[in-house]
Design brief:
With 292 residues, this protein is an alpha/beta fold. The chain folds into three domains: 80 residues, Winged helix-like DNA-binding domain superfamily/Winged helix DNA-binding domain (Arc Repressor Mutant, subunit A); 104 residues, Periplasmic binding protein-like II (D-Maltodextrin-Binding Protein, domain 2), CATH 3.40.190.10; 97 residues, 3-Layer(aba) Sandwich (D-Maltodextrin-Binding Protein, domain 2), CATH 3.40.190.10. It has ten helices and ten strands.
Length: 292
């Protein structure tokens, strides 16, 4: 079996189409289709159901995907072992929620590259989920522990969310005395139909019937809106901490959520991936007090 054909199979499986795989691999569309057909003939199995708008894995393809990912991991490990004397090198992509990724990790990630100057980090701090099986990221920081898939999860930390407003907003509108009073204030929250995880659907835990006057689909955006006096919002405590423009509202009412580091089982033994995952645990443990 030709490794390059397996690599093409994985690209098509992850992109969902031959054209997308060809672009990702910088190959001609016809070359990808021909090599994919050659692999199917060599295996004596139909790996994809090819459609006009894409290619879906067949049942045989789903089974082969598990083995192909293991082959990929072995190839990565072999290449890494061959260059073991040169230290930690290569690219690791980390997907993370924007609050953690931008406010916490981005200012600290330079320390890791300083230690391993052959390492390149791609930090993708956006409010969405990442498919590790499709290699959208090598490591994902998630808000929930995954319940299925060949994934290895490690809890990073708990963190708190609470109600905040700007000093300017409170000067103009006053502070609520009870949770029920929130209904008479301008509220800042998420765009509900863009919530990418159930962990973010927490407004009802503060006020049933919460209605956002301003909805922003990112934690960073909500923080900026509240800081500018747009209304009262549910913010991450570690992001609001130390900001004199943000005032806790009804501070006795908070929520606890968690961050997890998740790595695909086939990648956890790759040295550069393991080093980055270990750094995430190290830096969070070192500064755990800010998440309290």
């Amino acid at each position: 079996m030709n490794w390059d054909d397996v690599r093409i199979f994985l690209a098509v499986a992850r992109q969902g189409q031959i054209l997308g795989a060809a672009k990702a691999l910088a190959l001609n569309h016809a070359t990808v289709a021909r090599r994919l057909t050659a692999l199917e003939e060599a295996l004596g199995a139909r790996l994809f159901v090819r459609k006009t708008n894409g290619s879906d894995l067949s049942s045989e393809g789903e089974k082969f995907l598990i083995h192909a990912e293991r082959i990929e991991s072995e190839m990565l490990a072999a290449r890494e072992a061959a260059g073991a004397d040169s230290g930690i090198a290569g690219t690791v992509r980390v997907g993370a929620p924007d609050g953690f990724g931008v406010a916490f990790l981005a200012p600290r990630i330079g320390e890791l590259v300083e230690r391993h100057q052959g390492l390149r980090i791609e930090l993708v701090p956006v409010p969405r989920t990442f498919s590790l099986s499709r290699r959208e990221a090598d490591i994902a920081v998630t808000l929930e522990r995954p319940s299925e898939g060949r994934l290895v999860a490690l809890k990073l930390t708990d963190y708190r969310l609470g109600l905040y407003a700007s000093t300017d907003y409170l000067a103009r509108h006053g502070a609520p005395e009870t949770l029920a009073d929130l209904g008479r204030h301008r509220l800042v929250g998420y765009v509900e139909d863009l919530l990418f995880t159930a962990s973010l659907d927490y407004t009802a835990e503060f006020l049933k019937g919460w209605r956002s006057s301003i909805a922003v689909s990112s934690a960073m955006g909500q923080t900026e809106a509240v800081r500018a006096g747009a209304g009262i919002g549910i913010l991450h405590g570690f992001m609001a901490r130390g900001d004199d423009a943000l005032v806790p509202v009804l501070p006795e009412h908070t929520l606890k959520r968690s961050y997890w580091t998740v790595v695909h089982e086939d990648l956890r033994m790759i040295r550069r991936v393991a080093v980055v995952a270990e750094f995430l645990s190290e830096v969070v443990a070192r500064e755990r007090a800010i998440f309290a």
